[in-house]
What does this fold into?
Amino acid sequence: MSSPALTSTTDAPPDTRRTLAGWAVTAACLIAFMGVGVVDPILPEIGHQLGATPTQVELLFTTYLGVMAIMTLFAGNIGARLGRRRVALIGLGLIAAFALACGLSGSIPALALFRGGWGLGSALFTPTALVLLLALIGHAEKAIMRYEAAIGLGMSMGPLLGGLLGSHSWRFPFFGAAALMLLALASVATLVRVPEAREPVRPVSDVFRAYRQPAFLAVGLTGLLYYFGFFLLLGYTPLFLHLSTLGLGLTFFGWGLLLGLGSTVLAERLLHALPASRVVLGALAGLTALFVLIGFAPVTVPVKVTFVILSGTLFGLMNATLTTLSVEVSHMPRATATSAYNFLRWLGAALAPVSSGLIAEHLGAPVPYAFGAAAVALAVVITALAARGIDAARASDPHIH
It folds into this structure.
């Protein structure tokens, strides 16, 4: 897809304007994903304060991710109709508004509803932000590495912010997230401009046509299963470890730092040295083992915390590799490929939190990790069967030559 050139309102040279616009979008991505992780350390406290079961608490993730999954089907067309910049601003504004509403709410149903609104804002902003970065940077792999680095840093800083503010009140992290999103909104509104020309509106059926390509379908199904495991760990582990709010914040801060390292330095080196399918298979095999160790190894809580933190490296590597493959093996317009991939990965993510709560309540606290290991192991099988096709499709992608 040929993306329109982006300009700024300043009189700086075009390259400088594009650079500033790209960093503004990057910063907004970082802040947006801080809003995901900021909830993590306060989940046990919310459950305690509001008298909620683990399953009810996990609804805060499930409603958020479920709305994201559905709305990503339409995000590309909304961006084509309204313009990428406008959709990004609407998404950021919705996130700020619903984060504030979460901080003011007083029940689990209200929190779940407002988290769904937060997911709507994220569904509009996050895929649009990636398309903007692809246009601004002009090199798919570099843009994706930047995007995933912002996600990793956001996911690391979010839990730390949540732990620090949440140790005073579970409401404060929501207020902090709202304030940060307003800063992101201001930076994008000030520094990023797009011409009035609009892209053609494509039918939503184009998203489902992407799945006709075997390599892309394999990547999408791998993403669905992998993100089930990702958000099982992110959403359920705070309830499993029984740490303090600050302790959880520090744990997932370390996890997020390694997430950022895995999605940038490690991903860049491995994707240049090895076939992408081999990178995916190795990372998924490592995550399968870590899920088993976290749930069932007869070790102390500090050792399990270490396993959780170390898993961030493999999760970051997977995030960057799958996102790269999603835009390089489809050979479709990037907005369409992004929507098709995001639908499957957020669908898998949405199933994880609430199902982990139900599994824990009925089968025992460690058992959700067995389901996480099984999901990731099944992703290994799918990738292994499609490995040759995935690597061949990536090698023939015109965007990377």
About this structure: The mean pLDDT is 85. The first helix runs from residue 14 to 37. The CA atoms of residues 264 and 309 lie 17 Å apart.
